[in-house]
């Protein structure tokens, strides 16, 4: 397997498993090792012959892994893990706390510059592919408006928030774009849309026995930040229906820029990018894998420090060489 | 206006005018000069105070123009003009003869490397933004199928082909994606689609007085390469209706990749990019202007030679600096 990009997975939840699947689909990559904070013996991975190691032993395996893909969470894992691991590996993460990206970038950049490694942070679809589309569309159509719609899909944060309400045994929350808002945006009228006009929220809740459902519904619908600004529907279902109908993690959304061209801005233009994903973590993982390839190649050219999707020339992502790309894809 | 990117326009047809409009929308650019093969005195441009010069005098104005945007045609203009002007300027073109891109790239690359200039060829939307979306989507979803649909929009090449038929005074041809084909692709079934199943063609024809309309219709519908493989509708209209209803140059289309993720490829994913453009040349010109900015910045960093959209990191396209981009768009 010489010449392959040796990928390490750091954290083996839904996202880590997704990266494992993505590596399987990319013939120029191989899975070198999986690192976990759990007992490595308790964990069995899908790829035959791949070792599972303790997270704290990662640094010792510097010569076995080319690119480490970090699959932890943005709240507490990545802010410390990404800078730490950038001292030993080229690293990729999907840090998605938009407001804290500048801070995270600075920490990772300092670490990566010291070690001479490359890091690509905030890869995925938002931040990630959606961000790229906002940038491209904004650069092409300076006179226009941006709209991002999310869904239909499961929001883990909102599902968790509902689960924390007393009397709730399980919950799943779907974010849904309002079809009329999408149509108005696509028509080019550049509407001003309130939070409530853009998305609705739909909750499926398994209540504990004897719990006051009216009270639960009221608590959901009035929850500040999460639900109060939205039209929310609450459905009470049983555990079996939850398992059968709502165990997937689909997601997706739309990035639309509507802008004007022409001397008097007489021409309308709509640029739309959309995703429809059966599995949010499997897709995010596929983006991470593509940026692992990019990081590996950019490092070979001597580049170092922290990058984002904005800094990565598209050709680095494809397994095809530039001549083939020009001939077959341009 | 110091510090502005001084743009030259080489060729002042629909595309050249579009570039002029795009420059007006970008506060970091200014239009420095327009070059034409016609008599410069016969040409009046929209921007106040901008000089019009003879095409052959361009080289003498090397110190007045930072980036020259070539607005000629791909058949005979750009293959000679882009390499020639790359000896004096950073150049941008929209060369769109897909099969000849490798040859054009080689000629422009040699010229630009000799002069130390930078060139970005084949910018626009196809090749251009559509190509980028094919590349990104293919890198993220290695197991999948690509689909490109064009339209609804005016095809200049097909309109010209109809106009060459004896008895035709004027003609406009629209390329239209078949809605059922689009829906099948979006559903994730990855259908094999014939040429006829993907697009239909609709022609509006002004016949000369006394011309045999049945013969014209038959000649259109059976024309090899252009129409024979499609279901084509022909409408005969009068010159007034042509002027009132069909004088615009709208276009657009869809790039869709449908691919599978998961260990057993159990998850479907659809990535869709679409454009809806009131004016094809005005939009193409807006893409050219954004890549002129990119070329200018890449040149400042010492890069040279021929590039395509695949080689340009997205951040170069935006007027915003990288820190602002990370904070506001990621």
Q: Any key phrases for this structure?
A:
homodimer, 330 residues, alpha/beta, 7-stranded parallel beta sheet, 4-stranded mixed beta sheet, 14 strands, globular
Number of helices of chain A: 11
Helical fraction of chain A equals 25-40%
Unreliable parts of chain A: none
Q: What is the tally of beta strands of chain A?
A: 14
H and E order of chain A:
EHEEEHEHEHEEHEHHEHEHEEHEH
Oligomer: homodimer
Would you write up a description of this structure?
Two copies of one chain form a homodimer. By secondary structure, chain A is an alpha/beta fold. Helix content of chain A is about 35%, strand content about 25%. Chain A has eleven helices and 14 strands. The first copy, chain A, has helices at about 15-25, 80-85, 100-115, 130-140, 155-165, 180-185, 195-200, 215-220, 240-245, 280-300, 320-330; strands at about 5-10, 30-35, 50-55, 65-70, 90, 120, 145-150, 155, 170-175, 200-205, 230-235, 250-260, 265-275, 305. Chain A has a seven-stranded parallel β-sheet with strand order 3-2-1-4-5-6-14, sandwiched between helices. In chain A, strand 1, helix 1 (about 15-25) and strand 2 form a beta-alpha-beta unit. In chain A, helix 1 crosses helix 10 (about 280-300) and helix 2 (about 80-85) runs parallel beside helix 3 (about 100-115). The two termini of chain A are about 30 Å apart. The interface between A and B is large, with 71 and 71 residues. Strand 13 (about 265-275) of chain A pairs antiparallel with strand 13 of chain B.
């Amino acid at each position: 397997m010489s010449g392959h990009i040796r990928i390490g997975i750091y954290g083996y939840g839904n996202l880590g498993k997704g990266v494992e699947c993505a590596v399987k689909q990319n013939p120029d990559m191989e899975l070198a090792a999986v690192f976990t904070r759990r007992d490595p013996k308790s964990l069995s991975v899908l790829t035959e012959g791949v070792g599972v190691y303790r997270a704290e032993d990662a640094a010792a395996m510097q010569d076995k892994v080319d690119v480490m893909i970090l699959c932890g969470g943005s709240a507490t894992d990545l802010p410390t893990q990404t800078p730490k691991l950038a001292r030993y590996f080229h690293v990729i993460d999907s840090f998605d706390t938009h407001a804290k990206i500048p801070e995270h970038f600075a920490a990772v950049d300092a670490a990566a510059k010291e070690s001479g490694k490359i890091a690509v942070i905030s890869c995925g679809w938002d931040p990630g592919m959606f961000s790229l589309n906002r940038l491209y569309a904004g650069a092409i159509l300076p006179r226009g408006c941006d709209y991002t719609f999310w869904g239909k899909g499961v929001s883990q944060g909102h599902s968790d928030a509902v689960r924390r309400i007393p009397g709730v045994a399980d919950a799943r929350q779907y974010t849904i774009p309002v079809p009329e808002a999408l149509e108005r945006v696509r028509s080019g009228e550049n509407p001003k849309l309130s939070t409530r006009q853009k998305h609705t929220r739909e909750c499926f809740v398994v209540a504990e026995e004897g719990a006051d459902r009216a009270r639960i519904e009221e608590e959901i619908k009035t929850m500040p930040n999460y639900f109060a600004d939205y039209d929310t529907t609450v459905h009470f279902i049983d555990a079996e229906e939850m398992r059968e109908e709502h165990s997937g993690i689909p997601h997706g959304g739309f990035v639309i820029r509507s802008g004007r061209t022409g001397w008097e801005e007489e021409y309308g233009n709509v640029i739309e990018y959309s995703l429809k994903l059966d599995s949010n973590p499997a897709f995010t993982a596929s983006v991470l894998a593509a940026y692992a390839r990019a990081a590996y190649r950019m490092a070979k050219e001597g580049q170092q420090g922290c990058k984002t999707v904005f800094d990565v020339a598209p050709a680095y992502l494809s397994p095809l060489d530039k001549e083939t790309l020009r001939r077959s894809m341009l």
